[in-house]
């Protein structure tokens, strides 16, 4: 076991890249950078079921925990408004006369929209890939956060809160985390 060393604390700034094709290449690894972002968070949620004793043998004391699986999501606050980012996060966009994408949702998106049709590979590439962990979702659904609030004023920075929901890959894995050179597409 290594000794405690505050100098080894990790501050893992990086970039979110979609559709990477070659992790041995230089950044953006054959993919597309989704603008500037901050507040990147990887979230793991484990689902389980607790089996309890019947009332006459211990009144609800837990006797087993059955693991039902995990769900992974990565969130990011995007600080820019660019075509790749907007068309990735929003299901309905159009290109304006300026050449930039705009959101073309009137009311709500249509019912029955399948997120898997827009799934992409997502790579969180650290600024220092030789020392800090990268995160790779082999397939993820990109969406705007369910409770998205986009600031529109002079005081706060306008940010688009994006979420990438990991899907299980054919290998059964949904996420890889480690040094970039150890991950595989």
- Alpha-beta classification: mainly beta
Instruction: Give me the Rg, rounded.
Output: 20 Å
Number of helices: 1
How many beta-strand elements? Answer: 10
Tell me the fraction of residues in β-strands, as a range. Answer: 35-45%
Overall form: globular
Topology as a string of helices (H) and strands (E): EEEEHEEEEEE
The biggest beta sheet reads: 8 strands, antiparallel
User: What's the N-to-C terminus distance?
Assistant: 31 Å
Q: Give the uncertain stretches in residue-range form.
A: none
Mean pLDDT: 86
What percent of residues adopt helix (DSSP H or I)? under 10%
Relevant terms:
single chain; 185 residues; mainly beta; eight-stranded antiparallel beta sheet; two-stranded antiparallel ribbon; 10 strands
Descriptive notes:
With 185 residues, the chain is mostly beta strands. The chain is 4% helix and 41% strand. The chain is built from 1 helix and 10 strands; from the N terminus they run E-E-E-E-H-E-E-E-E-E-E. Strands 1, 2, 3, 4, 7, 8, 9 and 10 form an 8-stranded antiparallel beta sheet that branches. Strands 5-6 form a two-stranded antiparallel sheet. The chain starts with 13 loop residues before the first strand and ends in a 7-residue tail after the last strand. The mean pLDDT is 86.
